Amino acid sequence: MINIPILLIFLPVVTSILVYLFKWKHMNIVVLGSQLILTILAAIYFGHFYGQFEHTHLVLGGWDHRIGISLANDELSMSFIFLSIFTWWMVLAYTFKYGKTDHTFLFFLVFLQGVFLGLLQSNDLFNLFVFLELTTIIVTILIAYKKRGESFRAAIYYILLNTSGVLLFLIGIILIYFTFGTINIVYLHETLTPGDDTMVLRLSYILLMAGISVKSALFPVFTWLPKAHGAAQSAISALLSGLVVKGGIYLFFRMNFLYDNVGIHYGDFFYWVGALTAVVGVMFALSQKDIKQILAFHTVSQIGIIMMGLSSSDANTFYGGVLHTFNHAFFKSLLFLGAGVIIQVYRTKKVTEIRGVMRSMPVVSVFMIIGMLSITGAPFFNGFISKSIIKYGIEDSTIRYWILFAVNIGTATSFIKMSQIFFGPRTVSYPIKNMAQNFALFGFALGCITLGNFYIPFTESFFGIAYDQEFIHVGAFIDYAVTLGLGFMLYHFVISKDYKPIQNIRNFKLSFESANYVFIIYIVVMVTYFIWL
Amino acid sequence: MNPILTFIVILIGFYGLSTSDNIIKSVFCVTIIESGVILLFLNLGNFEGGAIPILNDHLVDIVDPLPQALMITTIVIGSTVTALSLMLCIKIFHHYGTVEWAEVLRREDVKS
Amino acid sequence: MSRRLFLIAMLGVLFVVFTLSMIELESLYNNYGMRYFLNEGFDDTGSRNLVTAILLDYRLFDSLFEAGILLIAVSGVIWISKHDVEEKNAQFMLDKYKTPDLFVTFSRLVYPLMLAFGFYVIINGHVSPGGGFQGGAIVATAILILYYIDGNKETNIGLIVTIEKIIYLLIILLASLSFFTRGEFFTNFFVPSANPDLKAIYLVLLNVFIGFKVALGLWTIFTAFLKEGR
Amino acid sequence: MVDYILNLTLIEITAYALQFLLIFIAVAIVVHKNNGTIIILIASFSLVTASLYIINNAPDVAIAEVAIGSAIIPLIYVISISRQREFIVLDKAMDDFIISDNQMTGIGFILLKRFSDFYHLEINITNDPMLGKVESGRDQVLLEETNVDLIVTKDPDHEGGYLLKGKASSLLLNKLETMLDDYDNVRMIKYKDRDIGE
């Protein structure tokens, strides 16, 4: 029973290699079968260890736990495991037809799942580094998979920036190893005391956080994300935006868990990083015209909102941030997959050229509208819940509250702009009938609505927190209406005019060397904040 | 002393990353950083009078073997990253006719 | 120019912080790992080379994914360099390149020596420096010399990749055999109290598999590049 | 301090010397502009690091570095850099436009020569009979999928005219296009990327 985590990692890996070896026509059914076994195994594991996750610490090879590699789970990692299994179900369903012929694609896709599940469960810092690097390489290949100039360029930007970040992560590991003689996360968490608060430890914290910031696309180093997620195929974009970028967020709270007892006050710093991420992401999103670029920049801004929640020391707000990672995974995957279907039919990515989606594709439009309502925070949808939790958590500080409100208005504006694609006369016929794709959209939409209304049992069982506060009341509706109204006005009077500054923002491209430059400045700012302040 | 000198190599790599306008040059710089990190790890694991971590019949003080094992992993990882990025470089040159970051990122995506 | 000076100043800040922490680290230095491996390493794993002991026993899980990275990178490089146009049609690049005769003779002489050295390093990984990864890389370099001797050598990449994947599956199988013999994943399938000579069987087997896998993987990578450069 | 320096052993002096050499090579790699020199530097960088690994009592890592870092990595660097000096032209016209009397003196060749001297490229002209048989509609596919940079064909609309086909995304072809102004009978077609959808 305790060995199930190993199966969770190696079942997808072995399946993917079998897919590569036997290029059989019905291989995608085998993949779905292994996916089913994976789901059942994860459920059994969760059921068996529910409430006693401290017993899941598994040292591979049975060695001293300070020497060997260990895997460990808790409620949080289990919730992420279920989220990733669900996302892979939907993405596999979406690419069902494609997977029949393209086995290389299926190979990378399924291998990534095993690696990602390993990343979630690993309890060893160097093992985390290996998994991070492996994820980086697979994601690079998936980004470049279309083999067009745009995707090559995004892929090389991604791999070089992320590798330099992950190498900093490795230097952090070096410092930890030579200070404590081990790299076991749970052990370090238990042995670290405020007395260990030395400069070496702080420097290791900074270096680990620098690597994680690149992986999770925080403010100055988010520039790889829009390029990568805009250039990949829609199914891949959905996977990357919805889930893989959350690997960085997950590591963020895993690492803060490691340093828990040292007493590093990271809250304010990462709040402001998150706020800047959110504001800048929205600003760029407002100026874009490419539908996938809009969605990709909104991923940046939503990550900012997540960080605003996660940086709070209050448990309610913290788990609000965690809940928002889940909600974001659902609605962003839904939007990306829906956009993929639309692009397939219309053969263009320009928001200004797509018209009449409602007439030509009513089913897809309904799902897309559910996604848009969720991301803008409409009551009864999931984005509303987590945004409300974060909002109540930071209500005491006026300026923080207004930043969140401004980001919400920007989000509303941008999706009002995007919603024009639904109106207008029918310009194309809709010949592609793909039930599997509709099923994937349906799954994510169902997730959005379910989490929006029945979030209490979910948070109780996974995070141990019951949000008994009633979020849906008249004020919430007024709030939403005001947001939408202001958003519409902003769109109508400013954005739709396409003034010169907006065009400048749209055409602004941060070159690679400048991205590294700001990365170094970011590290120095962290050094100044965490060591000398 | 040695770790500090090695850290200078890493910093030079970062300097190169943030000033080089050429993609291949950036890949070089990542290679430099990676070698620097490996050397840093070994520098810290080594101490005066230590022996190589292979046991003989008579017991001597060996240097820490764990960093060395980890660094072999890092070498393999680094070489695969280099290979993948260079293959991407070749394709980018073929597609855009240049490997200057600024030019490559500035080229508009022309689609039919 | 001011941009660069500012950058150097920033890097200087990092340098100062690192230097200060290094001075601090001298008093904090913890060598728990070193003492553990010195005292227990040989008895636990049966490998005199402690680096091999860590790679193939204590941290075998890492090594599996290290091999996995190579596997992924090989498939990725091949995918990116593959043309949809038939390979026969793509054989149009000029072949002006001609290796000097002296070099060819020298290569013919060196090639078997290098191959033998590679195998030596692989098989003796548990008693002397080396092991599967290093030996595999040496074997791959030896194969690279073959290309200097004969520039037009044809290689069936598909077959190599298939063999590589199968060997990877075998490595996973061999690594998890210990679960069936002693209930622990990813370690020697002989119990720790067994005779070191017996334990060496496992180490040599795993080293050989990893060596072959690495050699085939690197072979594929540079074949893809050579094709690109032709 | 003086005592410390005087009491250094030979190994330590070597280690310091190599460390400084490493810094020197790293600086040289970063500031150098010529890619060809950098290759030699990177190979020597790898060798110096390998010797430092040995001095740091890590023979295993040194073997790995020598095997991977000094043979295979420089090779792939050489290949990827040499690819950037080449401009591959596929000659489908097969007449005296490029090659006349078995000598490369056709007007097309002179044009391409001027162009390549401008960018310091090395032209690589091929006329593969197998490729010639691929029907003309596939030229775009050929350009996208293989490493051919330019295809020369006869102009079907113009008697005695020639077509140069290339990719619209390539920076090099912009320059070539401006050079074509001097030639009446040569036109250029730039293919845009095919949108292969999702």
Please provide a written account of the structure.
The complex is a heterotetramer of chains A (533), B (112), C (230) and D (198). By secondary structure, chain A is mainly alpha-helical. Chain A is 74% helix and 1% strand. Chain A has a domain at 265-497. Chain A has a two-stranded antiparallel ribbon with strand order 1-2. The mean pLDDT of chain A is 88. Chain B is an all-alpha fold. The longest helix of chain B is centred in the C-terminal third of the chain and has 32 residues, at 65-96. The mean pLDDT of chain B is 86. A five-stranded mixed sheet of chain D has the order 2-1-3-4-5, sandwiched between helices. The longest helix of chain D is centred in the middle third of the chain and has 24 residues, at 59-82. Classes of the chains: A mainly alpha (533), B mainly alpha (112), C mainly alpha (230), D alpha/beta (198). Chains in contact: A-B, A-C, A-D, B-C, B-D, C-D. The interface between B and D is large, with 60 and 50 residues.
Label the structural class of chain D.
alpha/beta
Structural class of chain C: mainly alpha
Return the string of H and E elements of chain D. Answer: HHHHEHEHHEEHE
Q: Let me know the average pLDDT of chain D.
A: 77
Give keywords.
heterotetramer, B: 112 residues, mainly alpha, Helix Hairpins, D: 198 residues, alpha/beta, 2 domains, five-stranded mixed sheet, 8 helices, elongated
Summarize the entry for a quick read.
The complex is a heterotetramer of chains A (533), B (112), C (230) and D (198). Chain A has helices spanning 4-21, 27-49, 75-94, 96-101, 103-121, 125-143, 149-180, 185-191, 199-215, 224-231, 234-244, 246-258, 267-287, 291-310, 315-346, 357-360, 362-376, 382-393, 398-418, 435-453, 455-463, 474-493, 500-507, 512-532; strands at residues 58-59, 70-71.
Secondary-structure blueprint:
The complex is a heterotetramer of chains A (about 525), B (about 110), C (about 230) and D (about 200).
Chain A (H helix, E strand, L loop, with lengths): L3 H18 L5 H23 L8 E2 L10 E2 L3 H20 L1 H6 L1 H19 L3 H19 L5 H32 L4 H7 L7 H17 L8 H8 L2 H11 L1 H13 L8 H21 L3 H20 L4 H32 L10 H4 L1 H15 L5 H12 L4 H21 L16 H19 L1 H9 L10 H20 L6 H8 L4 H21 L1
Antiparallel strand pairs in A: 1-2
Helix pairs in contact in A: 1-2, 1-5, 2-3, 3-5, 3-11, 3-15, 3-20, 5-6, 6-7, 6-11, 7-9, 7-10, 8-12, 9-12, 9-24, 10-11, 10-14, 11-15, 13-14, 13-19, 13-23, 14-15, 14-19, 15-17, 15-18, 15-20, 17-20, 18-20, 19-22
Chain B lengths: L1 H18 L3 H23 L19 H32 L4 H6 L6
Chain D lengths: L1 H5 L3 H22 L3 H21 L3 H24 L3 E6 L15 H13 L2 E5 L2 H4 L6 H7 L4 E5 L7 E6 L4 H8 L6 E6 L7
Parallel strand pairs in D: 1-2, 1-3, 4-5
Antiparallel strand pairs in D: 3-4
